[in-house]
């Protein structure tokens, strides 16, 4: 039985082994104590206890109770222990091979014949089984040395060959990469209405040579820089990283696709660059940064938190942008990476959905006219926002985006991260609702709010985060529910459609002509009042009407 290399410690467990055992290998462990004297294994052929911490005496009784036939042999290897003496007569039968090398007992010259059992160190124990009266021992040792030299030489040759092949492979990959970049750099630009083809020189100058001070963000596509064009227009330049570079055809196809997306709640593509191996996308610049910065309080532009009304307005804007992607874009698109850091805010705090680097086109109908309601794909996205069903089945649907948007809604209400210190935002909010402690999780930085509106917004957010997709609302239902919630809002001093930042970084109120019902900015809504949102314009989605938007 082979029990070697197991880090066993303590005394030798020989009493627990079967009597008919022929091989016992307990070598290379941490066994200590003495070797038992009274254990009898009549069929034992090999006992290996080398490289342990055994002490005391070696009992010669081990072989006394074994009846050896002419062919039977017993090999005992107890080398490299701490044995200091021999118990009994050290005169084993011819059939017994004993190894004691590496033990203190080998230095005891008072023990007769001890030397012949301490000179086997360095020999293969299996060599004893191959001993023959026909082959001299000296000849076998020379053969073993020769075999070892041959094996070592072959191993060296293989190692050197592997290193050379690896170096050649890396060199070839680098060469192919350079060739690929040269091919891309020689690609011609295409003319797309509303999208400008920038030169590398223009964008290098606009971003101050892509200086680190111009960096405003970083995502899966690459680093985002703030740029100032020659006409003093601010833009966001997304520079593709090494792992995001595409072929000429794929890159231009993506630009053509993005150029079709036109909606007030989507970040607009204004240009691109495809030169000298560089691939960059140029978008309109969002001066108020990401929603995540405002929710977390990390934005340097405003020390005040977003009010409840502004948060509700941002939720509506993001929802309309996603609804457009699902139903009006040509072809329709699943975003696949909706999160607070991918929702940007312009100077008026209008929400604009950004970063379609992970988006997937919705499949067209097959020959029978059937359109699959999902896309089979490798799971990608951001932990905390990923739809559980999508993670398990790899089937991306419109309800996957609904789930991610529901997480954003919960962030707007609580100010929490989706996952923080082992806490999940969905679970924490559900626990608070069940225990009647909703107020304990609501972000106190958003000031006063109508309780009825908050309850409905919270219920909508949780419904979007249901585990089963069929229990979640569709995007059009999300937009309609938000419209109903906005209709319940009271008139306020600050018009939600006219919020901006002044030069000091504080929220600037609208002009004095804006209507208000009270000087406090908050009133109680009477049941007989019907208030429509002051920022739902004629071009927005309202009550069962989806505008017709024809992409370029």
From TrEMBL:
<keyword id="KW-0067">ATP-binding</keyword>
<feature type="transmembrane region" description="Helical">
    <location>
        <begin position="145"/>
        <end position="169"/>
    </location>
</feature>
<dbReference type="InterPro" id="IPR008271">
    <property type="entry name" value="Ser/Thr_kinase_AS"/>
</dbReference>
<keyword id="KW-0677">Repeat</keyword>
<feature type="domain" description="Protein kinase">
    <location>
        <begin position="210"/>
        <end position="486"/>
    </location>
</feature>
<keyword id="KW-0547">Nucleotide-binding</keyword>
<keyword id="KW-0472">Membrane</keyword>
<keyword id="KW-0433">Leucine-rich repeat</keyword>
<keyword id="KW-1133">Transmembrane helix</keyword>
<dbReference type="InterPro" id="IPR032675">
    <property type="entry name" value="LRR_dom_sf"/>
</dbReference>
<keyword id="KW-0723">Serine/threonine-protein kinase</keyword>
<dbReference type="InterPro" id="IPR017441">
    <property type="entry name" value="Protein_kinase_ATP_BS"/>
</dbReference>
<feature type="binding site">
    <location>
        <position position="238"/>
    </location>
    <ligand>
        <name>ATP</name>
    </ligand>
</feature>
<keyword id="KW-0812">Transmembrane</keyword>
<feature type="compositionally biased region" description="Low complexity">
    <location>
        <begin position="508"/>
        <end position="520"/>
    </location>
</feature>
<dbReference type="Pfam" id="PF00560">
    <property type="entry name" value="LRR_1"/>
</dbReference>
<dbReference type="GO" id="GO:0016020">
    <property type="term" value="C:membrane"/>
</dbReference>
<keyword id="KW-0325">Glycoprotein</keyword>
<dbReference type="GO" id="GO:0004674">
    <property type="term" value="F:protein serine/threonine kinase activity"/>
</dbReference>
<dbReference type="InterPro" id="IPR000719">
    <property type="entry name" value="Prot_kinase_dom"/>
</dbReference>
<keyword id="KW-0732">Signal</keyword>
<protein>
    <recommendedName>
        <fullName>non-specific serine/threonine protein kinase</fullName>
        <ecNumber>2.7.11.1</ecNumber>
    </recommendedName>
</protein>
<keyword id="KW-0418">Kinase</keyword>
<dbReference type="Pfam" id="PF00069">
    <property type="entry name" value="Pkinase"/>
</dbReference>
<feature type="region of interest" description="Disordered">
    <location>
        <begin position="500"/>
        <end position="521"/>
    </location>
</feature>
<dbReference type="InterPro" id="IPR011009">
    <property type="entry name" value="Kinase-like_dom_sf"/>
</dbReference>
<keyword id="KW-0675">Receptor</keyword>
<keyword id="KW-0808">Transferase</keyword>
<dbReference type="InterPro" id="IPR001611">
    <property type="entry name" value="Leu-rich_rpt"/>
</dbReference>
<dbReference type="GO" id="GO:0005524">
    <property type="term" value="F:ATP binding"/>
</dbReference>
